[in-house]
Predict the 3D structure of the following.
Amino acid sequence: MTAFVFPSVSITGTGLFTPPESISNAELAASLTASVEKWNGAHAAEIEAGTVEARSAPDEAFIVKASGIESRYVMEKSGVLDPDRMRPRLETRTEDQLGIQAEMALPAIREALAQAGRQGSDVDAVIVGCSNLQRAYPAVAVEIQDALGAGGWAYDMNVACSSATFSIQAAVDALRNGSAKCVVVVNPEITSGHNNFELRDFHFIFGDACTALVLERTDAVVADGLGDVAHRWEVLGTKLATQFSNNIRNDFGFLNSAEVDERDPHEVVFRQNGQMVFREVCPMVAHHITTHLAALDLDASAVRRFWLHQANLKMNQLIAKGVLGRVPDNDEAPVILNEYANTSSAGSVIAFHKHRADLDAGQLGVICSFGAGYSVGSVIVRKS
C-alpha cells in the first residue's frame, strides 16, 4: 500500500507594518515616574496605614538588563506618555471607517503579496491571529478580506503570543486539504491597547506591529512561475502544544459588565507572574522544538537560524541553549525586540521577515512562538 504524502506548502511572501511612532525607554520611564509620584501622593494616607501598597518607580537601566528592550513602536504615543492617562489615545471610528487592525494589516499584506507575485483577488482565505481583537464581530479577517477584494473565507483566532504559528498551521492544513489555494495569515498586534502602563513590572514590555505571510501549495507556485524564489520557503512541518496556566492572563471580555463584583482595572489588561513563566516556559519550548526536529529526522545542528518569539532576550537565549546545548549568537537567533519590544504573535515573524535573505537554498530554519496558555507553536522551513 502506497503511503499518503501530504502536498508541499510554501511561504511565498512576508510583509511588515511598523507604526509611525516610537517610544524610548527614557520616555516611558519618565512618564511612569510622574504617574507613580502622583498616584502615591493621592494615596499617601492608605500607604501610611498599610492598606494600600505604594507603587514603585521605574528604572531605565533595569528595563534593558531584564528584557533586552530599548524602545517600542506604537500606534499612538501621546496618550501612553500622559501621566494622567497611561494608555493610547485612539480616535473613535464610525462603522463605515476601516478598523484600526485592518488598517495595520493592509500594508503588511500588500508587501507579502508583492513578494509572492499575487494580488488580493488571488487570495481565497484570510486568517487573522493576534492577542486581542478590537471587537467580537464582524471578524476583522472578514473586513480585511473585503478590503483586499479577496474571495473564499476568513476568520479570526486568538492563541495570544502563539497566534502566528497556530495560524500558519491552520493555513497549511487548509492548503493541504484543498479548502484554499492562497492563504494570507496576518497578525495585527496593537498590544499598547492591552498593556498595563501604570505598573513598573509591565509598562515596558509591549510594542505594536503587524506581520503578514502568504502561503500556497508549492506545486501551484512552481507551475504558475510567479513570485520571487528568494522569498520562498517550504514548510517541512508544523507542531502545536498547549498547557493551561494562569501565570499570564488578561480577563477583559464581554461578560465583565454582567459580573456581580466589579473587577480591579488591572485584571482586564495584561498581567503575568514573570518568574514562573520564565521557569516553566523555557524548558517547555526547548523540548517542543527538539522533539519536533527529531520527528522530522533533523538534528538541531542542521538548523541555520531560529526565529524565536521576541518576548525576552534571556528567555530566547535559554531556549536556544536547551536546543543547541550552547547560547546562540545573534546570527543564529536574531533579535528584534530591542527595537520593537514584545509584539506578541508578530515577533517571530518580524525576525523571519528581517533576517532570512542571507540564507542559501536548502538551509533550514525554525519559526517558533510561545506565550499565554501556555502555548507553543513551531514551523520548520527550508529555503527553496
